[in-house]
Amino acid sequence: MEKILFVNACVREESRTLRLARHLLSKLDGDVEEVNLAKEKIPVIDSWEVLEIRSSLLKSGETDAPELKWARQFAAADTIVVAAPYWDLAFPAMVKVYMERVTVTGLTFRYSEEGLPVGLCKARRLIYVMTAGGPARLNFGYDYLDALCRGFFGIRETMLFKAENLDIVGNDVEKIMASAFAEIDEAAAKGRF
Ligand SMILES: Cc1cc2nc3c(=O)[nH]c(=O)nc-3n(C[C@H](O)[C@H](O)[C@H](O)COP(=O)(O)O)c2cc1C
Questions:
Q1: Rounded distance, CA 49 to CA 190, Å?
Q2: Is the dihedral of CA 74, 34, 142, 20 positive or negative?
Q3: How far, in Å, is the centroid of ligand 1 from the Cα of 185?
Q4: Which of 11, 104, 134, 138 would suit a FRET pair with 88, their CA atoms being 20 to 30 Å apart?
Q5: Residues with a CB atom less than 6 Å from ligand 1
Q6: Would you tell me the crossing angle of helices 69-76 and 93-102 to the nearest 10 degrees?
Q7: Which atom of ligand 1 lies nearest, measured to the CA of 135?
Q8: Whose CA is nearest to atom 22 of ligand 1?
């Protein structure tokens, strides 16, 4: 069975991003494990001590420590789905906090002798789902995750599904959402995931 990791950064009860992500997940075949970032409240790495604890766990091979669970889980997934609303041209800060917990040397990537990152993640792809109030021409959230996937984790494919302009007065929100749903259906029908 495929392991699907669902990273949920949606906070609104009526979240449209979550609706889109649930639709995408219904098209994927596998066991879904969810990390709900709003509920998990992952601690920010805000002191050198936190990093020292992490280094000593890695040095002593204690990779089953709770502090490393996000990196372990991320490395082991076959497909990763991230659902994040478009906030301030990127994503909610908790996604950055999560990624700092995931980007762990020896678990999700390692450095080669030349000092270059080599991916250790199993996933074939990461699928990013978002909705935006206006147009999302600058998309620092998706671009950042895409760069990490390719540059660090060894995840070669990233895909983006989005619904934009949802908060523009007069726009037909359900029509825009339906067209985003249809894009997902089309990708599924073409066997892209
Ligand atoms: C804190 C915050 C920041 C936002 N920043 C942007 C932005 O930079 N550009 C934009 O087009 N919409 C922005 N929006 C609007 C959201 O992207 C939009 O309402 C989105 O559909 C929310 O997703 P949700 O329904 O899943 O919560 C922002 C909304 C919030 C609450």
A1: 49
A2: positive
A3: 24
A4: 104
A5: 10, 12, 15-18, 85-89, 131-134, 166-167
A6: 80
A7: 11
A8: 85
CA of 65 to the centre of ligand 1 (A): 35
Predicted confidence band of residue 123 (pLDDT cuts 50, 70, 90): very high
Q: Which atom of ligand 1 is nearest to the CA of 88?
A: 8
Number of domain units in the chain: 1
pTM: 0.98
Strand partners of residue 90? 87
Its domain, for residue 58, covers 3-189
Structure confidence by residue, pLDDT tens digits, 52-90:
999 999 999 999 999 999 999 999 999 999 999 999 999
Q: Pocket of ligand 1, candidates 17, 86, 131, 142: which has the most ligand atoms within 8 Å of its Cβ, to mutate?
A: 86
- The CATH number assigned to the domain holding 8 equals 3.40.50.360
Q: Which residues of 136-160 are buried (b: 16+ CB within 10 A; e: fewer)?
A: beebebbeebbebbbebbbbeebbb
Structure tokens at 183: 């894009």
Average per-residue pLDDT for the chain: 98
Q: Ligand 1: which atom is nearest the Cα of residue 166?
A: 21
Q: Ligand 1 centre from 96 Cα, in Å?
A: 17
CA distance 61 to 48: 20
